[in-house]
Write a structure and sequence with these properties.
Number of strands: 0
Shape: elongated
Distance between the termini: 89 Å
Order of helices and strands: HHHH
Radius of gyration: 24 Å
Length: about 80
């Protein structure tokens, strides 16, 4: 029996900018006060595309944008009874 070796090629290293981008891609979730609840809303695909582009241009997450929008509303009980 003869011993045969099979050479394995090492993958080429990533270019430095790509490597730095991957290593620096850490997203930290926002710190929220108290327990949280998940909200799911169905919207048309075209509206989702516009919303996503809006948030990308402002370098924000959709979730953060929605939290700010909701926080700006007066959601007090007295307002709900006026309707």
């Amino acid at each position: 029996m003869s011993s045969k070796t099979i050479p394995f090629k090492q993958p080429a290293p990533l270019p430095k900018p790509a490597e730095a981008w991957v290593e620096g891609a850490t997203v930290t979730p926002p710190k929220l006060d108290g327990p949280t609840k998940r909200l799911t809303v169905d919207i048309p695909e075209e509206m989702h595309t516009r919303l996503k582009l809006h948030c990308v241009r402002r370098k924000t997450l959709i979730a953060d944008w929605l939290r700010e929008l909701i926080a700006a509303q007066d959601l007090s009980e007295t307002e709900a009874h006026k309707a």
